[in-house]
Write a structure and sequence with these properties.
Blueprint: H1 2-38, H2 43-49, E1 57-62, H3 69-73, E2 80-85, H4 99-110, E3 115-121, H5 125-131, H6 140-148, H7 150-159, H8 166-185, H9 189-197, E4 201-208, E5 213-218, E6 223-226, H10 229-232
Parallel strand pairs: 1-2, 1-3, 3-4
Antiparallel strand pairs: 4-5, 5-6
Helix pairs in contact: 7-8
């Protein structure tokens, strides 16, 4: 019996190792395909990027693997400066000295981005956890991060009707969260100064990845509306 258990343990360990090997092999094959098929066609572009970057947009979104900003916006390397974390949260200026603050400050003060997009998405696990803390059992780091966003949760609860079905409430909370983060962005001196100069605009998006639909916040109607040719045209800054 002990030998049988040892054999099962050996098989389990080696099966796990094999799966890990397959996952890494997929990444290596991707690198090979990029180097052979993609990079040669864009070599000149990447060589230009070696001299510096000039992105137009700071794109703040969730770490969720289902969200690919460059694919969604069909942007080329060098066009988006991307900040990702659980729930696309922006701690208010001074609350935390970390990567979010450094990235925002650098994007606005040094790279001179023209716009900041906060993009929430459907089925966001972070916002689910924010609204339902009981789902965070065994996730101390996530729980700590979302506790830091307790002010965000309070603001969301003030705006969302708890009588709504869970799916509707989650979607409303995700949209509301994006707007709350715009308010937090305005607490950053570099952001506030750029907005005052008229060189920076803030935008809130909601991306439903299962349909490809993107809704953008329209201040004039106080609603999220579908992206259209009209919303894509240059206009006055939409700042919430």
């Amino acid at each position: 019996m002990p030998e049988a258990r040892q054999d099962k343990t050996y098989i389990a360990e080696n099966t796990d190792a094999a799966w890990k090997g397959i996952a890494m092999s997929k990444l290596f094959h991707g690198i090979h395909a990029f180097q052979k098929k993609i990079f040669p066609k864009q070599r000149n572009h990447f060589e230009k990027l070696a001299h510096g970057q000039n992105p137009s947009t700071l794109f703040i979104t969730c770490s969720d693997s289902r969200i690919v900003p460059e694919l969604l916006t069909q942007s080329e390397p060098g066009e988006l400066f991307v900040l990702r974390n659980a729930g696309n949260l922006v701690p208010p200026f001074g609350d935390v000295s970390g990567g979010e603050a450094a990235t925002i400050e650098y994007a606005v003060a040094v790279l001179k981005v023209e716009q900041i997009v906060v993009c929430g998405h459907s089925h966001c696990g972070a916002i689910t956890g924010l609204m339902r803390p009981d789902t965070l059992q065994g996730l101390p780091a996530v729980e700590q991060w979302l506790q830091h966003a307790s002010k965000v949760r309070q603001e969301i609860l003030e705006k969302v009707d708890e009588r709504q079905p869970d799916c509707d409430m989650l979607m409303a909370a995700i949209k509301c969260n994006a707007l709350v983060q715009l308010g937090h962005l305005r607490t950053y001196p570099a952001v506030a100064e750029a907005i005052e100069r008229g060189t920076l605009s803030l935008h809130a998006w909601y991306y439903r990845f299962e349909t490809g639909e993107v809704l953008v916040y329209d201040e004039s109607t106080d609603k999220f509306i579908p992206v259209s040719i009209e919303t894509a045209m240059p206009s006055e800054a939409i700042v919430a």
